[in-house]
Amino acid sequence: MPKDKINFYDDTKHFYEDFWIGRDYEHFSEVLALRNMLNKKHFKVAMDFGGGYGRLSDILLDYSDKVILVDPSTKQLNIAKDKFKNQKNIEYVLINKKNYIPAKDNSIDLLLMVRVSHHVPDPTKLFKDIYRVISPNGYALIEVASNAHFISRLKQYSKFKAVPKTPIKVGSVANGLRDETPFVNHNPETIISELKDCGFSLEKKLSVSNFRNRFLKTHFRLDQLLRAEKITQNQLAKINFGPSIFILVKK
Ligand SMILES: C[S@@+](CC[C@H](N)C(=O)[O-])C[C@H]1O[C@@H](n2cnc3c(N)ncnc32)[C@H](O)[C@@H]1O
Fold first, then answer.
1. I need a surface site. Which of 32, 65, 94, 215 has the fewest CB within 10 A?
2. pTM summary value
3. Is the Cβ atom of 192 under 6 angstroms away from ligand 1?
4. Phi, psi for 44 (deg, rounded to 5)
């Protein structure tokens, strides 16, 4: 196997779809964020980069003529092909070179990257490549698993420490499986400044899955949590409150 091949999501013992069982709140919070950020926009070509089995690809179809679903996992792409077998406007591309996007310069009007940055400890090269493929005035919508969320900050402050600007390695569901896929949480402000360094400008930031908490999830209905989520994503982004920060940047 080539050294840079990513195989965690190809592992026969790992079922990424099952991760989403019992996580409707998190899934629909992400859908809310996407719809908020893409509201009234329409694209010719959108890319779901590291899109896995296409959990969010059909949302992208509501905002674009064509979606290119790109992933390094053959297994995930095969699940997606089956799931979307009646959809004509989705194309599937397998990544075989790490941090390199299989697309021509200036050819993608929107690139979505959700739950991928936590597998990329040093995303600088990848961000430069995202900038390369995005068309002039095009967008990238990037989700960051945050090391600066409210609970994490409380933990750091209780030890009289500041939140690190650099990524933190986190425990991995890959433990026990046969590969070495990295799992890290990033500081969203560091990610924003890296994106700016590539030439992007910040359009919008949202704080997502703000009420991801076992107590809240068992004591409140999904619709109640999502109503609270919808009205707080914007405001709570100002203090990077949630575990997941969605960042919309423009070229
Ligand atoms: C947690 S899943 C997220 C899938 C999808 N974006 C979603 O939100 O459901 C992470 C996906 O990223 C892919 N991946 C892992 N490392 C990657 C990398 N360096 N570049 C692109 N994709 C990567 C994996 O194969 C996997 O399908």
1. 215
2. 0.93
3. no
4. -75, -55
